[in-house]
Design a protein that fits this description.
Blueprint (H helix, E strand, L loop, with lengths): L18 H14 L6 H6 L5 H12 L10 H14 L3 H5 L7 H27 L6 H8 L2 H13 L9 H15 L13 H19 L5 H8 L11 H10 L4 H32 L5 H22 L5 H11 L4 H11 L5
Helix pairs in contact: 1-9, 4-7, 4-12, 6-12, 8-15, 10-16, 13-14, 13-15, 13-16
The structure holds a DNA duplex (21 and 21 nucleotides).
Length: about 350
DNA sequence: AACTCAGCCAACCGCATTCAG
DNA sequence: ACTGAATGCGGTTGGCTGAGT
């Protein structure tokens, strides 16, 4: 016969997780590692279904998850990947390891889809003649070479847990806060670090400045050339930003920027590697996370080795890979990128 | 101050695939 | 080889929150 049932339907708790439950789950996974979800509710005493435990871990408690404040860079990646892969959120999330598929899916449904709609409706009068949808438009911007690049990238990388214990410490801090101030809402969103959010806001604002400082995309240019000013009002600033994200037309600038960027990416790789080593030595307990860290370091080295044996990466690969291996200095690199790629972003 | 409404997001549901027995 | 549970994944929903009236 098959396996015994994973969990009984009766006595299973549903709804939002409490900080106490989170702590129980996190400490169990720290001890035993993620996986074997069936045994989690039994061994922890949590009145949750194994499925619920796995979801809670992967979507919220897993270390290294970045929450909220999607950067324009991430937006661009999501838009391109969605155009390429469709609603394969797990596949898209594999290129953005700091984001969960649920997070990306939510962000797409609540923000990007609307932007797309506005963008499309603003462009429609021009697109109507050749029935080009935004999907086709984006796909055209994204060459078949890039599709191959994505496949290559998928083979090269393994999904890696980020090296920080940020989430767990936030969890503990949030729990301490909520314990000491019972009136305070136990809203799990409260775990997010205000400093982090602040930095993200600054970064976001910076990107917006760069974007809004006069980058006219191909579509807008086309409109101007055709004297289609009647739709100017329809294209909001966010649409312009959006078009900028989609536009890969100024390839000369891309190549120039890429050459410079390549250097920063290399130094960044070193950075992340030493970061990992540093964090390994600084922790004393041999936690599961440490094991994952060591695993990650090995993966990183393996990636670097395999990269040495492979042909030069395309611009897109660098873009994507950089985001994977260099999260600690993403802000710096993005700033540099935004300056260098100003005609595009 | 009270109410309504829309936006957002965590979590659930159900289907498809994988895999243990 | 077969069965059925475990797992993965995408779609959907319920409840919270803040803005508007």
């Amino acid at each position: 016969m098959g396996r015994p049932p994973c969990c009984e339907k009766v006595g299973i708790k549903k709804g939002p997780w409490t900080p106490e439950e989170d702590i129980i789950l996190v400490s169990y996974i720290q001890e035993h590692g993620p996986g074997n979800w069936r045994s989690v509710p039994t061994n922890t005493g949590l009145l949750r279904c194994s499925k619920s435990c796995r979801l809670r871990w992967t979507n919220y408690l897993r270390p290294g998850i970045k929450r909220g404040n999607f950067t324009p860079h991430e937006e661009g990646m999501i838009i391109h990947l969605q155009a390429l892969l469709g609603n394969k959120w797990a596949a898209i999330a594999s290129y953005l390891p700091q984001r969960t598929d649920n997070d990306i899916k939510n962000y797409w449904n609540t923000h990007l889809k609307k932007k797309m709609k506005r963008f499309q409706s603003a462009l429609d009068p021009h697109m109507a003649s050749d029935s080009t949808s935004y999907h086709e438009f984006v796909s055209k911007s994204f060459s078949s070479t890039d599709k191959r690049s994505l496949d290559m990238l998928n083979q090269q990388q393994t999904t890696a847990y980020a090296s920080s214990t940020e989430n767990i410490s936030k969890l503990l801090q949030g729990w301490m806060r909520s314990s000491s101030s019972p009136n305070k809402s136990l809203n799990i969103n409260g775990y997010s670090s205000p400093d982090h959010d602040h930095d993200q806001d600054k970064l976001h604002a910076h990107h917006h400045n760069n974007i809004n400082n006069g980058n006219i995309s191909a579509a807008t240019e086309q409109e101007e050339e055709e004297g289609g000013h009647e739709h100017d009002d329809l294209i909001s600033s966010s649409d312009q930003e959006f078009e900028s994200i989609l536009s890969f037309h100024n390839l000369n600038n891309v190549v120039a920027a890429y050459n410079n960027w390549d250097k920063s990416a290399n130094s960044c790789d070193q950075y992340s590697s030493t970061d990992l080593k540093g964090s390994q030595t600084s922790t004393t307990a041999a936690t599961t996370e440490e094991k994952l860290l060591i695993h990650d370091d090995q993966n990183l080295k393996q990636q670097q080795r395999s990269a040495d044996n492979n042909p030069p990466l395309s611009f897109l690969e660098k873009w994507l890979l950089l985001d994977e291996t260099c999260t600690s200095t993403t802000a710096q690199v993005e700033d540099q990128m935004m300056e260098e790629l100003s005609p595009i972003f």
